[in-house]
Amino acid sequence: xxxxxxxxxxxxxxxxxxxxxxxxxxxxxxxxxxxxxxxxxxxxxxxxxxxxxxxxxxxxxxxxxxxxxxxxxxxxxxxxxxxxxxxxxxxxxxxxxxxxxxxxxxxxxxxxxxxxxxxxxxxxxxxxxxxxxxxxxxxxxxxxxxxxxxxxxxxxxxxxxxxxxxxxxxxxxxxxxxxxxxxxxxxxxxxxxxxxxxxxxxxxxxxxxxxxxxxxxxxxxxxxxxxxxxxxxxxxxxxxxxxxxxxxxxxxxxxxxxxxxxxxxxxxxxxxxxxxxxxxxxxxxxxxxxxxxxxxxxxxxxxxxxxxxxxxxxxxxxxxxxxxxxxxxxxxxxxxxxxxxxxxxxxxxxxxxxxxxxxxxxxxxxxxxxxxxxxxxxxxxxxxxxxxxxxxxxxxxxxxxxxxxxxxxxxxxxxxxxxxxxxxxxxxxxxxxxxxxxxxxxxxxxxxxxxxxxxxxxxxxxxxxxxxxxxxxxxxxxxxxxxxxxxxxxxxxxxxxxxxxxxxxxxxxxxxxxxxxxxxxxxxxxxxxxxxxxxxxxxxxxxxxxxxxxxxxxxxxxxxxxxxxxxxxxxxxxxxxxxxxxxxxxxxxxxxxxxxxxx
Length: 599
What we know:
Blueprint: E1 3-7, E2 14-18, E3 25-28, E4 34-35, E5 47-51, E6 56-60, E7 68-70, E8 73-75, E9 77-80, E10 85-88, E11 91-96, E12 111-115, H1 117-122, H2 129-143, H3 148-162, E13 166-175, E14 189-197, H4 209-218, E15 221-225, H5 236-241, E16 245-250, E17 259-265, H6 284-313, H7 319-325, H8 330-334, E18 337-349, H9 351-357, H10 362-382, E19 386-391, E20 394-399, H11 408-427, E21 438-454, E22 459-464, H12 466-481, E23 485-487, H13 489-498, E24 504-512, E25 520-526, H14 537-552, H15 555-562, H16 571-581, E26 594-595
Parallel strand pairs: 3-4, 21-23, 24-26
Antiparallel strand pairs: 1-2, 1-11, 3-5, 5-6, 6-9, 7-8, 7-10, 10-11, 12-15, 13-14, 13-17, 15-16, 16-17, 18-20, 18-21, 19-20, 21-22, 23-25, 24-25
Helix pairs in contact: 2-3, 2-6, 3-6, 10-11, 14-15
């Protein structure tokens, strides 16, 4: 596996990236591809590179302003062999065919020290000026990574910049129970996420497995110091690696579980500008710097994971629920369990006819339907509910999971009334995109299984149980009973108890739904009197008295009372028509239950 190493005029201007065989990649100063933002003599998109497994094909792009130099000559297309380089502006690009292999045969260190994070945090920098600039840029450099791979590259670069005596640095991940380098299948897998070293070499980079495992298992920084003159087991190890010390610092946090930073270097200086280290204690500043970098990465990754989780959950949960769940394990939070829920179904009326009329402009219809369903989903989330599912032109929400909501029935009712109010307001505005939409809403309360439910191939957050079917039935009955919102008896009882002044309720009828044997008392949910003056509290009382007369078999009295309800009220038509169809006389087997002939 080959890497391309970019090095600018400043030691900090550097990256190493792994080449994928046959995959074209763009080199440039900005935009997509591999960027060198430090070099203004490189165009935004300067060259295209392709690795064929043996050589790197480089082709200058038409809009590139400056030449590409290969072996001292300006060329627009050429091939680079491993170990060779080309130059654009002030940046050198080297094709490195180097390997990184975890060493299981590293010699026993002549000195080993461990450093707890608490100790490293307490000690003072002895030479802060060497690290202050890098430390000031650390949060921006790390948080600005657009992907995990970019984070790996930036972190390793940060180590080489912040630790001047480092010969190499790597970001390591240790996972349990995977395929190992040894024959023991239970042995942890050590994966190098990214690595780099200052000088191109033909020797493999071999981080010490022993050092890595000690640091990760102890969750402390561990320093190994070797002396080639005193190590008989593998005297070539330190010479070939160009190191005589290495340390490994674990990165904490759930998002970086098993991660560690590995840094290796030499005590002797390669140039006069490098600091001189006389003994291992001189590495304390570098260890403290690495500990700070590890803490920054850990915090950043945890925040990023929580942000992604919150963004994903926000499609289903309201902010109130998300706040209550913050810090919890998503798998545990989303696990299905039996609980008391209130389920709301909302259906857009006339959808099929609109599809027929809009056959030549379905995208516009889809946009309008999405906006209409958006009203429903917004109000469900606004009342602390969970978005459960969509069925074409219908949406489902529920309350009572993932956290208990004793006021779930009331929240469902308030969401339903808000949805009704939004569509009523749209209907009063000519030309409004939602003016010709009508809705039917059904709500039911009861026991159900809620959570992440599905198969091995597909899962979704939803709710399962008879109460879901009942809510769907309630929504379906809004058509025949001519009521925008219908709720079951359990929801009605809870709403009356929780907030008797926030909602108004009207018992509509006792019915036997089509295909079911058990009778249901169906109640209409109505807005407060000030929001819906068309139907007064006295009108509701007259209707409910008429209903009691119907149930008791006093149909003539019921028929007379129903005429006291305003003609604009469509719900009274259901009882009026039913009575008229039977010539205002109850059947001999009348039990007060009206059978419905369709769903």
